[in-house]
Write a structure and sequence with these properties.
The protein is mainly β and 146 residues long. Helix content is 0%, strand content 46%. 28% of the residues are buried.
Amino acid sequence: GFPASEFGDPTLAIDGDTSTGWSAEVNAARAPKLEAGLLIDLKTPQKISSAELISATPGLTVQLYGANPAAGESTAPATIGDPAWVKLSKTVVAKSRHQHIKFLRPLKAYRFIILWIRDVPASAVGTAEAPGHVFVNELELFPSTE
């Protein structure tokens, strides 16, 4: 529900280059809440066991969710409040540039994965005149071996 102008190119978070990244503007009036996510469409349901988050914004509070399209559909659920989204990880505060996140349900396959950013650190807030930004340099997903 936020303007697209508040976000960078999401493909930069999965391009294999840690010097690039997806960005999201932090609205000072809503901070420290961000309540925005980076959606990945795996094209087919896949079993994922963990993720590696590389971020130039340590202190992000994140959680990973998974979903499959409804019967006859090909799109992800429209809001994170949709019951089709399933929590795949615990809520994690990414304290360093590299954060490994284990999945709670590595044996279930999902087509859509979303990195949901709930809160941002104070250092990323900015002001109304000069909003802050958060960065996800890479989000790497690891398949389940079971």
